[in-house]
Amino acid sequence: MKLILLSGGSGKRLWPLSNDQRSKQFIKLLQNGSEYESMVQRVWRQIESINLHDDTFIATSSNQEAILKKQLEIGDNQIIVEPSKRDTFAAIALASSYLYSKLGVSKDEVVIISPVDPYVTETFFSAFLKLEQLLLESDFTIGLIGIEPTLPSEKYGYIVPLKENSCEISEFVEKPNKDYAKKLIDKGAMWNAGVFAFKISTILNILVEKNITVDYDELLLNYEQLPKNSFDYEVVEKQENIGYLKYSEYWKDLGTWNTLTDEMSVNKVGNMIEMIDSPNTHVLNELDIPVAVLDIPNAVVSVSSDGILVSSKEESPRVKEIPKTFFQKKAYSEELWGTKKQLTFTDDIEVILYEMENEKELEITMCENSKLLKLSGTGHIFYNDSNKIIDEQLVVGSNNKKVLVQSVSKFKFLIIVEK
């Protein structure tokens, strides 16, 4: 069995801490002992605990590759990078082709697809082994995991069992409206947990039927030919021979501020936070500025370089209604070498703070209007065409000349660009 985790997201649901590079699965807000971990780190730790990590791969976009490598101890050959974002069918097709044509995995191998960030216990991933057996011992072409619904929701697909205590499905409905979802629940329907199981041959056959190559390298070159559609709509709704397993233990989608804060063990994360008479309110502050909250109960206050959100918890899922321009300025990003944070948003000057970790390298192009100002830590700066270290505290750019920055210890500096 091979496990493929899908890592994507536009970074809107947990704005302003999340953006399209640091989506919700990468935000470190869940406590693990004395430290904080992200959702993806939690899931990877659980997968390691049941020894599935060597057979686990992550399908993601290029802008999330660096942060994945930074947060997880994962090999380069376990990350499958999509050339562009084309929804889950394309991502799953590319990953299946990678396993088959690059790694030589058998067509008869069972592949399990899962979101990269379910909030579950280890038993959820152990259930994948049972799902594999269901496919191997039956004629089902697709296997799913069903979750007992707590309310009619438009966020999930619905699995309608053929009959009680049966593994067969009579109907699969992807994201119905609330009224229809209620009718489905009355018929015994369950939420689809976002998990799909199939033999590699199933996906390869679908690609062949669509006259799309199954060779990984060719598929990369012709990626735009793949339908831009979810796997649920493109495959699952069209299949007739689908089985499922019911999962009855703890499962939760931490996709909004109200669901995430429910699972946080503290209500203040960050520096210089003061709350007075604000029960059940959470404050998360990534900046070095004071944040005070007075008499605001049941709220979330989130502060980052990308913006500030103040919302009641009940209405926090409406963050997607914020104007699109708010999401377009990605002021914070995590890279293999450290972090980058934009400090200004004016038309005449741009100031970006770079914080490099120990013994890292970074190449920067310096235009005529740019300056590099060293702040703290130990690092060396060279022009790319010279081995001579630049000793000056302030380095002035010229003619788009490239400089190489090497950190010895944690090295902090500014890039200032006058427009």
TrEMBL record:
GO biological process assignments: GDP-mannose biosynthetic process
Pfam families named in the record: NTP_transferase
SUPFAM superfamilies linked to this entry: Guanosine diphospho-D-mannose pyrophosphorylase/mannose-6-phosphate isomerase linker domain, Nucleotide-diphospho-sugar transferases
Record domain Nucleotidyl transferase: where: 4-263
InterPro entries: Mannose-6P_isomerase_type2 (IPR051161), NTP_transferase_dom (IPR005835), Nucleotide-diphossugar_trans (IPR029044)
Segments forming a coiled coil: none
Organism domain of life: Bacteria
Protein name, per record: Nucleotidyl transferase domain-containing protein
Organism field: Enterococcus termitis
